[in-house]
Task: inverse folding
RNA sequence: GGCGCCAUAGCCAAGUGGUAAGGCAAGGGUCUGCAAAACCCUCAUUCCCCGGUUCAAAUCCGGGUGGCGCCUCCA
């Protein structure tokens, strides 16, 4: 039984989708006016793991994540670049797809764009107008909040307080301050579509109501997004959808906590926004995922170079272990027979943590135990029987594959991953590979001649260059110190 | 001001009534010509503070203190 912290109730609840065995999930995707930053990436990674785990648990999942490609910010950005807004939006949709792939995010089943769903949006607005909860005013259409008594049930705000703080923007034609735009009359040069209220474009919130209804139905199971979307975006979605359909909208609302930069908020005005694609130049994608997942999704997460380096060191441990396991036991036949211990115990621990509101940090404990045991079997086997060790290593390796599928980690070939990381570090530190190899050969000669003083001197020289050498039965290998 | 979140070892971080997961760092050990890697051991009588409820609280309640988010575009 999976439990989920539901923002609607503020509590952890048993997760029971409307239709048994089937989950319909909607995650608010990016507004494509620029590249996504690492905060966006954290949220998308969190829901990526939610989606993966629901599938792992056997649910038939329909996963929708939209692109908001019609919006004020896009129009403004396009003014600066001189592009057409649609063209700029498409450029950033393409960029997002690249970023998402690089971060190992699974593809949603549907990635709808606002610009492809104007008819659905217009129809939904019309329905709200017909029901008398929305009104036209000089080419704009507004949702009348006072007509929806349950307004603010998600964010639990006091309506009077909200009214006191609300200001009507110049040019807006609202009856009441809290009313929000469903449709905005076109201004010259802006993208516009025909509607019963004249040329215009959708307001911000309506697209999610229209598109989720189209692909998931009017009442679906899970809706996700960043913490900041609770108000007003999700609040407004609920109001629009429920006012239109006269039935409860989404049943479970999940919100991901913020990522900050060592305590400081990431914001454009501070000039400290870290783009995902820039971060991925410096750190391995899986290490970045590991970092995102190292704190529970609802808690704040603090980004720093140190935390990134730590994550990568941990990934190196995992991959180094897997490389050795594959070398020892990969593709071999150890026959049938008993195992050492119970590999399934790790699966049970993993699932118990994940079932509890997707507690990935808790699941990492199971992962740690699994890797410690693999290393123990490799280096200090507690049993003598080589077949038992081999079979157990293979079984444990299979368990890591299960976890990998859920976490989107450790999906690479271990050898490839380690080599790629080494290449990146060599490039970053500007290490002269030929010189390293020459020094290692020099040292090998010294060792062969039992001249250990000389050998140690070479080791020190390499160390000063940032290169660490390891003597193995197969010869001396080296790696770059992170 | 309103709403909400958070406060656990040097650091990161789980744990929402039954007596403190996991990781990093550190110290000791095994292994090694020396190292590295790996493994083993040690590392919070205690969970921001003060009260209360309970046989029992990091966990529930009340009151503080400190940090943060939203209330305006924001993942």
Result:
């Amino acid at each position: 039984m999976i439990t989920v912290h539901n923002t609607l109730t503020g509590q952890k609840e048993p997760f029971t989708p409307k239709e048994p065995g089937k989950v319909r999930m909607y995650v608010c995707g990016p507004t494509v006016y620029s590249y996504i930053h690492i905060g966006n990436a954290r949220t998308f990674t969190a829901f990526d793991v939610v989606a993966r785990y629901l599938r792992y648990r056997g649910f038939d999942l329909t996963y929708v994540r939209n692109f908001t490609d019609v919006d004020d910010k896009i129009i403004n950005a396009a003014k600066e670049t001189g592009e057409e807004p649609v063209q700029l939006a498409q450029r950033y949709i393409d960029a997002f797809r690249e970023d998402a792939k690089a971060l190992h995010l699974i593809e949603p089943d549907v990635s709808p764009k606002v610009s492809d769903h104007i008819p659905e949006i217009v129809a939904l607005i019309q329905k709200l107008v017909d029901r008398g909860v929305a009104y036209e005013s000089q080419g704009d259409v507004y949702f009348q909040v006072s007509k929806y008594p349950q307004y603010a049930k998600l964010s639990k705000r006091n309506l009077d307080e909200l009214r006191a703080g609300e200001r009507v923007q110049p040019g807006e034609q609202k009856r009441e301050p809290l009313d929000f735009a469903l449709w905005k009359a076109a201004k010259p040069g802006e993208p516009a579509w025909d509607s019963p209220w004249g040329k215009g474009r959708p307001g911000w919130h309506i697209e999610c109501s229209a598109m989720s209804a189209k692909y998931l139905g009017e009442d679906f199971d899970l809706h996700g997004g960043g913490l900041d979307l609770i108000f007003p975006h999700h609040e407004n979605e609920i109001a629009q959808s429920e006012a239109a359909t006269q039935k409860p909208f989404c049943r479970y609302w999940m919100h991901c906590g913020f990522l900050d930069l060592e305590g400081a908020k990431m914001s454009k005005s501070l000039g400290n926004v870290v783009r995902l694609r820039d971060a991925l130049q410096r750190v391995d994608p899986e290490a970045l995922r590991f970092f995102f997942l190292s704190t529970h999704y609802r808690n704040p997460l603090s980004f720093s170079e140190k935390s990134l380096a730590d994550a990568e060191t941990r990934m190196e441990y995992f991959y180094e272990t897997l490389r050795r396991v594959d070398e020892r036991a990969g593709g071999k036949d150890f026959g049938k027979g008993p195992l050492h211990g119970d590999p399934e115990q790790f699966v049970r621990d993993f699932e118990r943590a994940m079932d509890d509101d997707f507690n990935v940090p808790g699941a990492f404990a199971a992962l740690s135990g699994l890797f410690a045991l693999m290393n123990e079997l490799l280096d200090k086997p507690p049993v003598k029987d080589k077949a038992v060790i081999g079979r157990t290593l293979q079984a444990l390796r299979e368990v890591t594959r299960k976890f990998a599928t859920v976490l989107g980690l450790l999906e690479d070939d271990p050898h490839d991953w380690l080599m790629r990381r080494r290449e990146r570090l060599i490039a970053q530190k500007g290490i002269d590979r030929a010189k390293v190899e020459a020094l290692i050969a020099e040292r090998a000669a010294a060792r062969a001649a039992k001249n250990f003083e000389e050998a140690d001197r070479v080791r020190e020289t390499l160390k000063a260059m940032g290169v660490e050498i390891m003597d193995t039965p197969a010869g001396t290998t080296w790696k770059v110190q992170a």
